[in-house]
Amino acid sequence: MEPIFKTMASKYTNVGFVKIDVDELCGAEFGVQAMPTFLLLKQGKEVERVVGAKKDELEKKIQIHRAV
Question: Closest by alpha carbon to 48, among 29, 27, 63, 26?
Fold first, then answer.
């Protein structure tokens, strides 16, 4: 998923993309129980979550929330 993640970061320049190692930071805080887990946050609050390597679902949710 990392190449796809990097491609999306280049495509959606008005969206911040951050890769975090859940073993080092925030896994428990955000309830991450499986990898990969993608959290979409707005103003520090979770608005969507995608669990698993679901490229199409992730991109759809990015498109929805970047416009709002």
Answer: 63
Record the pTM: 0.84
Give residue 6's Cα distance to chain centre: 11
- Can you tell me the distance from the alpha carbon of 27 to that of 6, in angstroms, rounded to the nearest whole number? 21
Per-position pLDDT tens, the chain of length 68: 999 999 999 999 999 998 888 777 666 777 888 889 999 999 889 999 999 999 999 999 999 998 76
Q: Among all chains, which residue has been given the structure tokens 């951050």?
A: 18
Query: Tokens 């608005």 appear where?
Result: 47
Helix count (H) and strand count (E) of the chain?
2, 2
Say how far residue 59 (Cα) sits from the centre of its chain: 9
Strand partners, 39: 49
